[in-house]
Amino acid sequence: MDDDLDELAWLKLDDVSQTVDVSEIEHMYQTLELEEARIEVEISDCVDHRDSVDMRLAQLSALHKRVEATHLLVKPMQQTIDATAGNAGVISGHVRELDQERVKLEHALNTVRETVELKERLSELLTAMEARDVDRAATLVHEYGTTSSDTLDSPFIRFAAPDSTQPPRDIISAATKELVERVTFMFDAAVESNNTREISRCFRLFPQLGETQRGLDVYSEFLCAAITDKTRLGQVHVSYALRVTRLFEAIASVVDSHFALVEQYYGKGYVLRVIQRLQMEGARRACLVLDFFEEERQVKRRLAQIQQADVARPWVPPRPSVKAKADLDDGISDVDFKDIASILAEVVLIGRQVAAFDRFLESRAQPEALLLLDDPEAQRRVFLSSEAIGKLVPLSTGQNTMHVDEQTGLVAHTQLTSRIEWLTCTYVAFETFCVKRSMAKAMSLDDTDALSGWDGAVSSDLEARAQGPPAGTVQTSSCVGDVFFVAKTSLEHAVAVQQAEAVEAVAQCVLEAVGEFVRVMEQRAAEKWADGASVQRRILVSLNNLDLANVYLQKMVDELRVRLDSEWARVSDAVKSRGRNAIDSLSALSSKLLQAQQHSIDQLSSMLLKPWMRSILQHSYRDIKYVLSDEEFNDVQSDNLFQQRFELRVRKLGHQLRPRLLPTTYALVVESMCVCLVYDWERAIRQSKFNMLGGMMFEKDVRFVQLCLEREANGVLRARFARLVQMARVVAEPVDAVSVAGVDKDVRAMLANRVDMAQQN
Length: 761
Known about the structure:
Blueprint: H1 2-9, H2 13-18, H3 22-48, H4 50-131, H5 134-144, H6 149-153, H7 168-193, H8 196-208, H9 212-231, H10 240-266, H11 271-296, H12 299-308, H13 334-371, H14 376-382, H15 386-392, E1 403-404, E2 411-412, H16 415-444, H17 478-497, H18 500-525, H19 533-567, H20 573-585, H21 588-620, H22 630-638, H23 641-657, H24 663-685, H25 692-713, H26 722-732, H27 745-748, H28 755-760
Antiparallel strand pairs: 1-2
Helix pairs in contact: 1-3, 4-5, 4-7, 5-7, 7-8, 8-9, 9-10, 9-11, 10-11, 10-13, 11-13, 11-16, 12-16, 13-16, 13-17, 16-17, 16-18, 17-18, 17-19, 18-19, 18-20, 18-21, 19-20, 19-21, 21-23, 21-24, 23-25, 24-25, 25-26
């Protein structure tokens, strides 16, 4: 039905009149019929419900009359309400005016009350001033600071003054000024009499009088004076390092003991001003100590001596027949060197204490500085100004770059900064000189002929009975421990100073000095092998020295890394990175030591090991063949002369070399022996004839030799025998099962040596 209505809504008379198609006309006709039927139904429905509609219309007409009557009754009431609302607006305006007057009256009453209280406080203040009751007067002045500005500017203020000729502000100002002078005088008197209780009492009165900076400054002066008593030493001749230590310990004790007191009476962050004053005092006193140290220890003269000395010259090994002497012709006597070493020790201790003092002050000041970082006004009140810093610095220093760092809360570029730079340069000069001279002396005193347990030379005659060295053979000389003790000690000094420049300079010096040690060891190991015990001792001990030096180096670098990370915990990341890189650069010596050791072993191999292994191989292969019958194969299995001869001579050789070499050095020597053996064995085996049984025996011989040498080296040598194992596999397989897949042409050429394969072909 709804669809028909929608269709009828779109039906237009013009469209109907213009339609000529019969089907469309029929469709329109049906639609009109349906619409006509619908309308008839609606009309019939309306006729059927006529009575109910008439009744509802009658009810509506009656309701309209009642509404009109009600409107007539409500109209007077509406007029009354409108008049009442107008009166209420007028009353509300009057009430608002009364409220405003009440507020003004209350404000006036409050002002009068505060004025009366102020008058009482002023009277009490004058009484306290006359009675010299400083504590009560200071409290009243502090309470005056809490009085509102409205009270002070009100017309009633003139009634507050006891003397109408003088305003309250002038009375308070005069009283405050007088109180500040009194408290300052009392503080000075308490300091003179060393009355700590009175000092604390006066110290807490300054912030009540609005003189925070004055209180902190006079208290800082008192603390600076107290440091003198704490740093006084009873002995006259005391090391300057101890003086600096006592100075910094005294300042640290003062900071820790007075930190809570300042924070209690002045608030958080205000202790920074005291720390800054103590920092400046510590810098001044430390500079004085360094000046006396430089003059009394004659540091300039020693530096001139060091510059003229030539301790970097190459060391010439002493002749075997002459005992080594520490003859270092550098113009500096042993007495002078001891004096230089003692100065260096003091410089290191002073540098360590200066660095520790800086880290301590930073740990105490930086948290307080962060509290004031976003408050420029608080920083202005707390931090020392440039003018105040200038008054604390002697004019002779000529420094005008000092200022307070907002991040750390400390004074940057104090007069101690330039002295630290001088101290660092002095340390580097002394340390590098001592390193070079000490290492040169260690090398000159190194005497391999004095080593015990080297009686008897290594015999090249393997047919004779091997004579091993006696028990307790000293395998390394003293220079290794001495050189790395000097290197480690110097680098520990550099780390203790906590200056990246010092660590870099000393690390470079150690690199050069140890490089000279490696060169000397290479020269010794490169000597021509001879039957004499002295030459053999120098060569083998040099190999051991290079091996042990690498162990010492790795241990030294690891320990220095740990020490640097521990002692440089509060150093900036950039400086710490420079120090760590300098320590890590020492690791480059490890590859240099290994390269020198391997080069020395290769030289030993060409001079000694290669002839020895060739002789062992020739002797072991005497009357040995690899074309075997079944009976011969069984006989060789039960009594293998090759394996017996080889093992006997390798044991003789190991009996002589193993006690004279360190385990790792001996393992490298055995590996070099393997290289020599495999080269000669491969060349010899290519000229031998095989059958399958002989190939099987050759494979067993290869396995036995590999196992024998692995036992000597206490390691795995599989890679060195890989090619021989391939050759053995080729000559040991049955004729019909020979596989050459994955082997090179030289190994495949071994098939031509198989007599059983040639017979079958």
